[in-house]
What we know:
Layout: H1 2-10, H2 29-41, E1 49-50, E2 63-64, H3 65-79, H4 83-146, H5 156-206, H6 211-278, H7 284-341, H8 345-354, H9 369-372
Antiparallel strand pairs: 1-2
Helix pairs in contact: 4-6, 5-6, 6-7, 6-8, 7-8
Amino acid sequence: MTDSIMSKAATMEIPINSNGDTGTLPEDDSLEQDLQQVMVSGPNLNETSIVSGGYGGAAEGIIPTSSIKDLRMKARRSSVPSSSSFLCHKASESNEYKGSNMHHSSSSSSMMAEEATRGVAVEKLETVKKWGLNTYKCTKQMISERFGRGSRTVDLELEAQIEVLRDTKRKYENVLRLARALTNHFYNMVQTQHALGDTFADLSQKSPELRDEFGYNAETQKLLCKNGETLLGAINFFVSSINTLVNKTMEDTLMTIKMYENARLEFDAYRSDLEELSLGPRDAVAMARIDAAQQQYQVQKDKYERLRSDVIIKLKFLEENKVKVMHKQLLLFHNAISAYFAGNQEQLEQTLKQFNIKLRPPGADKPSWLEEQ
């Protein structure tokens, strides 16, 4: 019945007038009744099916309406992104942005590092170039002086003082070597006296018939050993002071003298270079080279004069210091040696007090257990 009604509704014609409006349909009571019957007893819409074929065709492609609704809901769910996928998408976008920024910053930093490296290389190249040119000029000047073809700046008074200082240093080094030898020999003698005194004391206990004689000798050796240790303290102080004077004070002055002599050689090298350029042509290129050589000459001249002044001052203070130190040390050495060999223990101890020399107790050279940790 339903199929007959649907076929009837489908084949109905809707009259259209000349103005395009639909005309009034004649009332059909039978059609209205059939529709009401379908509405009452018809199938549920939720259970209806859609036929893929035409009317009257085979019922092969029947798709339930509920399946269509399920498909629509799945499509809607798939079309709306979830919160987690949205956050992941944003995170990936931020990571891509950060990665691009990091790539840009790394590329800029690498460019800056390359520029800095290039600048350092250029600076080193310029330094090596200047050093090579300066070494060539100084070597040329030194060879010319040795073969008598070049002129050199001479300060007779200053060079005489420098030669006296070098000779004095050689002599003081000899005094220092002999004083150290004396200290070593005297130390061995004191150790021998100490061992001999212990042996005499032991024999005094084991030989009753020679107890007094061994006892006298044991006391004498102990006294000599004590005075020898006092004299060793004075000699060690003398050696230490001479060592400071020779290997520190004089050596510092000689280092300044060496710098002065190098500055003198450089000054003469640039002076000779300027003289050679002055004898040449006077074109524009030559004048530019003469101006540059004049500037270098002035720089070397200022350096030479400054070091010359430093050497003069140091030689003056060195002479004053040397006289003061040697006066004190020679007096100490004389008084200590005289008191020791005269057997005057009181005078020997008074000499050490006069020069503020404190003797180390036996075993003081050995570090404590705390220092060994």
